[in-house]
Amino acid sequence: MNQLQLFLPCAAGVEGFLADEVHAITGRSGHDLMVGRGGVLLRGSWRDAMGLNLHSRLAQRVLVQLSQSLYRSENDLYRAAGEVAWEIWFSPRESFKVEVTAQHSPLTSLNFAALRIKDAIADRFRARRGQRPDVETRHPDVRIHLHLTTDEATIYIDTSGEALFKRGWREDKGDAPLKETLAAAMIAATGWDPHGDSPQPLYDPCCGSGTVVIEAAQIARRIPPGMLRRFAFERLVPFQKHVWEAMLDEAEERILEHSPVGIYGSDVSHRMVDFAQRNAERAGVGKTVQLRGGDALQRMPPCEQPGLMLLNPPYGERIAAAGTAGRDSRERMAQVERAGRETAQTEDGVEFFSQLAAHWKKNYSGWSGWMLTPDLKLPGKMRLKESRRTPMWNGPIECRLFCFDMIRGAVKPRKGEASGPAGGDGA
Ligand SMILES: C[S@@+](CC[C@H](N)C(=O)[O-])C[C@H]1O[C@@H](n2cnc3c(N)ncnc32)[C@H](O)[C@@H]1O
Question: CA 357, CA 352: separation in Å to the nearest integer?
């Protein structure tokens, strides 16, 4: 189990950050670590596979590649799956499931492709062990992944089980919580390093259920993201309990009692702040994050030292800006009542974002504001020129992580408007 071909899928745009993370966790580099489309390929050991499940914040899963071959028909898939030594991975006592993904596959039915893989696995077990494992589609012990391109079929066994964004601490959700893996990717993209020479505080002024601050607090305290959950590899044949327990003990010893920097969150909805607090407690960082209620348009910096703000701000109809920007109009308040919650939309957010930019410019000098949004017009609405823009995908939604540096003079005046107190020489 020392020379496994591992594949770690991740969200598009995150591959480079994931490769850095995999290098930091396993020490692998060069030909052993390659950035692919939608993931990272790694030549590693079984121990690496366990360590990546425990420590990776960016990977969606850790898969072991068991076969790669050209195919033209379902029979080719049956043959390829029949040649895999499944019996060294699991026994007929474990239930299994086959999942298929495809890009430009010529096959007409992916369900039929999955069925042929399942038949090959069952037939091989029956021939060698006299009995076959059952198929279980909802909670299988073992997940097999088949990926098809135009002419190539790759078969993997999944060592993770539930997707890795499920860290085990989220019970309270907001309306649009970020996936934990995406929050971690946002943090990676900022380069925030709480253990570096000059660690900076981190603040999410629209923290919702707390995903960004909880990920940040765990990073700061070196709490592994997988500490609270179980993994599929615990049911596989190569698993050795004592090795895994030693790895967990080692990880636990590295956990810091305190964060080297302040980590702060606030949200206009007190209900959300309660959710975030409860999630943070389950994640073991209840005392590490400092959470408050409050309008992002009014909240002053949570600490003296400038740091970075990192948020996915309200957008669209589902998660509209609330607070002072939404309070003016009766119609908006009627919307709030109709929606039965504390939201008030400001057209397409122009008002909210221009007020937010003015507030930041006036009160957050020296901070940088990092915002993930599907709205490519956000810099225009903020009347700020971004210093960085990183493409990222929130599921199927293409987004940008914009960075705005709060230096005097970065807010542009609107047409026909004189420069405000914040100046007006921005691009
Ligand atoms: C897209 S959600 C953020 C989700 C969050 N990252 C999470 O993981 O749950 C936007 C959040 O902004 C909050 N919000 C809306 N208007 C606000 C305002 N004026 N000030 C502060 N928070 C606001 C909403 O209550 C909502 O929780």
Answer: 9
Question: Ligand 1, closest atom to CA 269?
Answer: 25
pLDDT digits (tens, 9 = 90+) for 186-226: 999 999 999 999 999 999 999 999 999 999 999 999 999 99
d(CA 179, CA 181): 5
Same domain, 184 and 140: no
**Cβ neighbours of residue 317 under 8 Å, at least 6 residues apart?**
345
> What's the token pair of residue 63?
């898969």
Residue 172 is assigned to a structural domain of this protein: no
Q: What atom of ligand 1 comes closest to residue 204's alpha carbon?
A: 6
Ligand 1 centroid, distance to 171 Cα (angstroms): 18
Task: Please give the model's pTM, rounded to 2 decimal places.
Answer: 0.89
- Angle of CA points 347, 401, 277, to nearest 5°: 80
In short, whether 211's Cβ falls inside 6 Å of ligand 1 is yes
Q: Is the CB of 349 under 6 A from ligand 1?
A: no
Range of the domain at 348: 180-224+263-405
